[in-house]
Amino acid sequence: MDFELTEEQKAHRKEFFDVCKELEKKRPASFVGLEAVFEIDECWQFHLDCAKEFGKRGWLALAWPPEYGGSGTMMDKVLFAEARGYHGIPGVDIFGVQMLAPTALTAASEAIRKEFLPPIARGEVMWCELWSEPNAGSDLATLSATAIKKGDEYIINGQKTWNTGAHRADWGFGVFKTDPNARKHHNMTFILLDMKTPGVTVRPIPYIDGDAPFAEVYFDDVHVPAKNIVGQENEGWSVVNLLAGFERSGMGEIMGMFRELEEIVQYCNETKRNGKPLSKDPLVRNRVAQLACELEAARAIAYRIADLQNRNEMALMDASAAKIFYSELGERFAFVATDIAGPFGQVKTSRWAPAHGAWEKKFQECFVTIISMGTNEIQRNIIAWYGLGLPRMK
Ligand SMILES: Cc1cc2nc3c(=O)[nH]c(=O)nc-3n(C[C@H](O)[C@H](O)[C@H](O)COP(=O)(O)OP(=O)(O)OC[C@H]3O[C@@H](n4cnc5c(N)ncnc54)[C@H](O)[C@@H]3O)c2cc1C
Predict the structure, then answer these.
(1) Which pLDDT tens digit goes with each residue over 280-296?
(2) Cβ–Cβ contacts within 10 Å for residue 180, how many?
């Protein structure tokens, strides 16, 4: 098997890395951790600036059909994610670019694609995901927020929660019950709405440390044009499942860990414990080497996912398996890094904090990808049921 990149791919990869390396020099010092863009104003602004830059270069529409402004291949998309992950650069809206766009390209009407894809490709409009509710998380099909059709509008009422970046987003995509009398899974519609519509109230939810990456969103008689849907009315469940596959493929996260591995190795080389370099401690070496092995496996998974997406052959099980692997690898990275750093691993803002506090932040945040996008228990259920044909658990 030949995994070598073509000359053209190598050239694209170099360009992605060169641009991201330059952008890294402008990254605010406060940009630490996955969720900084949603938590800190200057990080959000940096995200918007990077998005504009990538939009100008056509990199937010990689692998899209040319009629919607697309260019490049799925492999270019992976190489771009690799460069951004390595240099820690935002600018790609996970909700608009990574989730809604591929979903719309598969399931939306031509009119919706023409209206919503170009601003996403230019990096001008940021999105959020409005799915979870206080009583509907893993079992999203039990949701209760409604969108009742009246003339050529839906009137939305209810509450969503845990919506990442909803306090920053311009637009949101959500699922709402459009036929309360229909049976489960055939009673909800996938709706696009402007977050500035009257009746939408967004309240940030702070973590225990005060940072607020997500929000709860209340809908009080919110009028949305009935044309703003993806897929068929009352068939939003199939759109949710389609989008979830794109949501869970995780290429950027995997590539970001390569940089973290370099930082861990550098720390081990430069730091002495009990008069001996950490890099000579057999237990430390063992754990770091194990991370390196798992990271290579993760990279192979990311390439495979890209290839499957390219051929339109990605099954829900593939996305679930990738999500479990990279999210739990992220957790192991956080544990190994903070274990190796000892008490220093617990500080974020001190000059003694390794990796400018990134390890402490990662330790605090590493549960994020394990729970969000459907918990890993649910992903294992999907693999068992869809992938392996085991009986479905009621
Ligand atoms: C950081 C973060 C960001 C998020 N961002 C968004 C967002 O942008 N938009 C959005 O809509 N939502 C978002 N969420 C919400 C997320 O999708 C839900 O938290 C997730 O789906 C789980 O739902 P829940 O919290 O209600 O937990 P529950 O569904 O109540 O689950 C509780 C526990 O029970 C387990 N469990 C439940 N059912 C089963 C089962 N059948 N088999 C085995 N175990 C089961 C779960 O795995 C979990 O451990 C985010 C969550 C987090 C943590």
Answers:
(1) 999 999 999 999 999 99
(2) 10
